[in-house]
From TrEMBL:
<dbReference type="InterPro" id="IPR054471">
    <property type="entry name" value="GPIID_WHD"/>
</dbReference>
<dbReference type="InterPro" id="IPR007111">
    <property type="entry name" value="NACHT_NTPase"/>
</dbReference>
<dbReference type="Pfam" id="PF24883">
    <property type="entry name" value="NPHP3_N"/>
</dbReference>
<feature type="domain" description="NACHT">
    <location>
        <begin position="176"/>
        <end position="330"/>
    </location>
</feature>
<dbReference type="InterPro" id="IPR056884">
    <property type="entry name" value="NPHP3-like_N"/>
</dbReference>
<dbReference type="InterPro" id="IPR027417">
    <property type="entry name" value="P-loop_NTPase"/>
</dbReference>
<dbReference type="Pfam" id="PF22939">
    <property type="entry name" value="WHD_GPIID"/>
</dbReference>
<keyword id="KW-0677">Repeat</keyword>
<protein>
    <recommendedName>
        <fullName>NACHT domain-containing protein</fullName>
    </recommendedName>
</protein>
């Protein structure tokens, strides 16, 4: 048996411990480990093993490197770092089972049961790391956005695939950053949804496509830290070996790694390490609506500019409005900008296809005559000003209008997005439920995330006959339909520009006392909601100290209304 000594200096550097490794058959790819029990290791003792790869051990003659099969060592017994990605746990289990390990505590051979326990323990740690890393699932966000907008129409985005700047970005290594910019409502988000689908169809599993959708109205996904968490989450979900870059810090810090004051710096280093990982396949990184990243936008832009230059093999696509500060930070030789305003002809043609699709749907559902259908299509085409959102909002209103009044209602819609919002708020203010509508719009304008129906009744002062009537609430929100929409019992703005209009146009009467006064009112109502709702052991757990992550809320959830 070959014996190799590994010397480790203790914390106070006053003495040395000697660890004896059994390296028998090391040249044949066998794996070794340590035991922490001089009677042999079983059961819970094995739980403290951690996987290691490419272990280098100092000897009196020259460094000896173990083969790349996994080696298991005891935490706190020896301090060794991984130097290459860990293979799958199944491979690890096969490699370690049945091999003999010698330590100062005795000799032990790993059994199949112990190996399974090791694998189970490591799997649990990895799953916990992924759960804590996840702030959202970008794939679910993409599906939600597409559903909210009535689905993804291929004819509305296919023009970008033939665009000269897009093709140069795709085929030229020197242009690794594509910046799609345009005014609100021009279809940037749906354009990126289409690009994601096309790249997925084109490359399949041969490339990584990681994306993130920023939304200013949702605190979960409106900050730079959330962007990195989303991108990293997508990458490690597809390639579990990349999780080692996260685990190297997560094992020490836990969930705080992603949430404390140093989270941005830690995640930036992790993200950079992943990008330069030699095992990472061809990678496309896509971020939509940078202008809706309300916290940490500047460092995020700096990081994008830095890593896109340092690692040109990683392709980037970002989108935003025409903001000078974004242009200033992204303006470099490796950036390929696509302005939607400069591609007006292509965008207008895409909007025409969108109008055709929406009118066809309305004509089918509302049973329009040919004359009505042609009139609506002509009006939309001549007044849309190349704006998808304007068309979508008008068609949404027509969907709620009787076919007998469709043409007359259509003529009342002015061209331009801001003018349309002005018309919509006038309709709200002239409705029978104007006060309730304005209270709901006021709360929705200042909350930091979308709110659910249950929460709305506590946060908005409504007449008693409305606060507990979900159908009546739905009808009132429908009156605000040009500003708000409902998805899975959650109320959201139809677009960020709708919220900005309400905050900007003070004459609407939605925020008569100003934003600060509305925040104070919301705070007071939140305190009142908690005072009314909270009570000792509200979930009837009955056992103090029970892990909160294992608590299953009852149905209905008594805390649902007070969650905000």
């Amino acid at each position: 048996m070959q014996r190799t000594e590994y010397a480790r200096t203790s914390v106070d550097d006053s003495d040395e411990d000697t660890i004896i490794l059994d390296l028998s058959g090391a040249g044949q790819g066998n794996a070794s480990g340590f035991s922490n029990n001089d009677h042999g290791t079983t059961g819970s003792a094995v739980q403290s093993f951690v996987p290691l790869v490419d272990l280098t051990i100092s000897t009196t003659s020259s460094p000896t490197q173990l083969p790349t099969s996994p080696v298991y060592a005891l935490i706190n017994t020896i301090d060794i770092k991984r130097t290459s990605p860990l293979p799958s746990l199944e491979v690890a289990a096969k490699n370690i089972a049945g091999y003999e390990a010698t330590s100062p505590f005795g000799k032990h051979t790993a059994s199949a049961v112990e190996t399974a326990q090791i694998v189970q323990s490591e799997t649990s740690l990895n799953q916990a790391c992924l759960r804590d890393l996840r702030t959202t699932n970008p794939h679910h966000d993409k599906d939600r956005i597409q559903n909210t907008n009535g689905g993804l129409l291929k004819d509305s985005y296919r023009w970008i695939l033939d665009n000269e700047e897009f093709q140069q970005w795709q085929n030229n290594q020197s242009n690794c950053l594509l910046w799609i910019r345009g005014d609100p409502g021009k279809g940037k988000t749906m354009l990126l949804c289409g690009i994601i689908d096309e790249l997925t169809r084109l490359f399949g599993d041969s490339a990584n496509i990681s994306f993130f959708f920023c939304q200013a109205t949702d605190a979960r996904i409106n900050n730079a830290t959330a962007v990195l968490r989303g991108l990293i989450y997508s990458l490690v979900k597809k390639h579990p070996s990349l999780l080692s870059h996260v685990k190297s810090q997560y094992d020490h810090a836990g969930k705080a790694l992603f949430e404390d004051i140093n989270a941005w710096n830690a995640l930036s280093r992790i993200f950079t390490d992943i990008l330069k990982d030699a095992t990472l396949l061809s990678t496309y990184l896509i971020i939509d609506a940078l202008d809706e990243c309300t916290t940490g936008l500047s460092p995020l832009l700096d990081l994008i500019a830095q890593v896109s230059s340092a690692y040109p093999q990683r392709k980037w696509i970002v989108s935003s409005r025409n903001w000078p500060d974004i242009e200033e930070r992204l303006d470099s030789t490796n950036t390929a900008p696509i302005s939607l305003e400069l591609n007006e002809a292509s965008v207008s043609e895409a909007v025409s296809k969108f109008i055709q699709h929406k009118v066809h749907y309305l004509a089918k559902v509302k049973k329009y005559s040919d004359e009505t259908r042609h009139t609506i299509r002509r009006h939309l085409s001549s007044n849309s000003q190349g704006t998808f959102l304007w068309v979508a909002l008008v068609c949404q209103d027509l969907d709620r209008t009787s076919r007998m009044h469709a043409v007359r209602k259509l003529e009342a819609f002015p061209p331009g997005l801001n003018a349309l919002y002005g018309r919509m708020i006038d309709q709200v203010c002239n409705s029978e439920d104007a006060e309730s509508c304005k209270r709901i719009l006021a709360v929705m304008s200042i909350v930091y995330r979308p709110i659910a129906f249950d929460e709305l009744a506590y946060l908005v002062e409504l007449p008693n006959d409305l606060s507990s009537d979900s159908e009546a609430l739905s009808e009132i929100i429908a009156i605000c339909g040009s500003f708000l929409t409902v998805r899975e019992d959650t109320i959201i703005f139809v677009h960020q520009s709708a919220k900005e209009f309400l905050l900007r146009e003070t004459q609407t009467g939605v925020l008569p006392g100003g934003i600060e006064a509305e925040h104070h009112t919301l705070f007071s109502r939140s305190l009142k909601a908690m005072s009314k709702t909270l009570r000792r052991d509200i979930f009837q757990v009955k056992f103090p100290g029970f892990p909160i992550e294992k608590v299953v809320p009852p149905s209905p959830n008594p805390l649902a209304a007070a969650q905000y």
